[in-house]
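Bug #77: duplicate submission created two jobs. Keeping one. Sequence:
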Amino acid sequence: MVTRGETKVLFDPLFRNGYGQYELVPAEMERALFAGEAPWDGVDAVFVSHYHDDHFSPQVMLEFLRARADIRFYGPAQAVDAMHDVAGAADTGVFERVVSIELNYPQPPLVLTMEGLLIEAVRIPHAGWPDGRTEIENIVYRVTLDERTTVVHLGDADPNDVHFARDAAYWDRRHNDLAMPPYWFFVSPQGPEIIERRLHARSAVGVHVPTRMPDDPAARPAEFEGVDLFTEPGETRQIPVSD
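Kept job's structure:
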């Protein structure tokens, strides 16, 4: 979750499969999400990067949108189609708040708006490109909250600069106060340069971190020295914001 004043957004919040290496959302946290209890009250939008079971459950997301009638959903067409597959006739109203993002690689970025949010989306291939998972619609979101705080969430993006260089002007147009790349960006040959030179990130925290990664930074593999990672549910960071 990212907050700026009264504006709140969620990225890839509900899934059901950790594949034996990723932590699931704790039951009490999920209950509070559904109930809209603080700090999960007042959420404006949910963004889903791609349809993989460790990022998105169509059934659980549909139930969440039923429970939280004030939230809009943005996701790739594959995710939205999966929600339609499990929906019923009574869910017509839910889909009025659902935005299906259809982007082929390498189409130009898409720009959307809603109150309090500037939403920019671009399809960046899933990690494993070009040999695998090329059919997965992985969406990288750059979201500006209240015209002030800009964050970028990369889903499971492939850390190859060729995907970012083609839209260099787009990335140069807006710097990011916070980048949320998958943890492997920090230890891939081109990932750190993408974070710094393409995303222009003032700060970066790695996400989608396996449970085998120690919570104690001093106990982590040497290549992660100095790297900030989210490893515990509920931990927070203060986003540095430019003047």
